[in-house]
Specification:
- The complex is a heterodimer of chains A (113) and B (112).
- Chain A is mainly beta and 113 residues long.
- Chain A has no helices and twelve strands.
- In chain A, 40% of the residues are buried.
- Helix content of chain B is 0%, strand content 54%.
- Chain B has no helices and eleven strands.
- In chain B, a hairpin with a 2-residue loop joins strand 5 and strand 6.
- Chain B is mostly beta strands and 112 residues long.
- The chains are: A mainly beta (113), B mainly beta (112).
- The interface between A and B is medium-sized, with 21 and 24 residues.
Chain lengths: 113, 112
C-alpha cells in the first residue's frame, strides 16, 4: 500500500520569507512523487515531480522540492513567498507498478503581507 | 492546447437518483483518472482508464462506475445517490500513467 502524510494542516509565512510544506511518503519500491496546488473552486495544478535523478527538483512558479530517500520525504520549498502563493497544496505518490495517485490531506498555505 | 474539460460544472440531484459526469482529456492523452474530493476524506482515487480499459479501481462501492471511449473521453456514473456522495469530482489526464496528471476544474455534485 502507498500513502502520503502532510503533517501540517496550515502553514503561515510572511511575504518574502522562505516557505516549506512538508510531505512524507510510504510506498513499495521506488516512488513517483508529485506536488499540486489548488486555488479556491479550481482543479489541481501541477507544480513539480520527482521520478528519478537529482534529488532537488525545480518546478513552476519558483517552487522546488527535495527528495530524501532515507527520510522518505519530499518537502516543497520556495525561497521567497508571495501573497499569491496562498492556496491548498497537495503531495501525491505513486508506485512504479501502480496507476493511482495517493494524495495527502493537503496543507493550507497562508502568506501574509 | 485545450485543457481537461468536465461537464457539467455543477449538478444538484436527490437521493436515489443516478448521475453521469463527463470528462474530455487533453488531446493525445490516453490515461484518464477520476477522483472524489470532500472536506472530510480529501482526495480519493476512484478509477483509472487507459485505452478504454480500467486498470485500477479505488475503494468505492459498485455504485460508482466509469468507462472510456475510443477517443479517450471518459464518463463516470453514480447510481442510487446518497447524501455522502456530495463532493467535487475531478478528472485528470496524462500521456501515460508515468507522467504528471493534468486536472479539470471538476464537477460539483450536491445530493439533497
Amino acid at each position: 500500500a502507498q500513502s502520503v502524510a502532510q503533517p501540517e494542516d496550515q502553514v503561515n509565512v510572511a511575504e518574502g520569507n522562505p516557505l516549506t510544506v512538508k510531505c512524507t511518503y510510504s510506498v513499495s519500491g521506488n516512488p513517483y512523487l508529485f506536488w499540486y496546488v489548488q486555488y479556491p473552486n479550481r482543479g489541481l495544478q501541477f507544480l513539480l515531480k520527482y521520478i528519478t535523478g537529482d534529488n532537488l527538483v525545480k518546478g513552476s512558479y519558483g517552487f522546488e522540492a527535495e527528495f530524501n530517500k532515507s527520510q522518505t520525504s519530499f518537502h516543497l520549498k520556495k525561497p521567497s513567498a508571495l501573497v499569491s502563493d496562498s492556496a491548498l497544496y497537495f503531495c501525491a505518490v505513486r508506485s512504479y507498478s501502480g496507476y493511482a495517485l495517493n494524495f495527502g490531506k493537503g496543507t493550507s498555505l497562508l502568506v501574509t503581507p | 492546447k485545450a485543457g481537461v474539460t468536465q461537464t457539467p460544472r455543477y449538478l444538484i440531484k436527490t437521493r436515489g437518483q443516478q448521475v453521469t459526469l463527463s470528462c474530455s482529456p487533453i488531446s493525445g492523452h490516453r490515461s484518464v483518472s477520476w477522483y472524489q474530493q470532500t472536506p472530510g476524506q480529501g482526495l480519493q482515487f476512484l478509477f483509472e482508464y487507459f485505452s478504454e480499459t480500467q486498470r485500477n479501481k479505488g475503494n468505492f462501492p459498485g455504485r460508482f462506475s466509469g468507462r472510456q471511449f475510443s477517443n479517450s473521453r471518459s464518463e463516470m456514473n453514480v447510481s442510487t445517490l446518497e447524501l455522502g456522495d456530495s463532493a467535487l469530482y475531478l478528472c485528470a489526464s496524462s500521456w501515460t500513467s508515468e507522467n504528471e496528471q493534468f486536472f479539470g476544474p471538476g464537477t460539483r455534485l450536491t445530493v439533497l
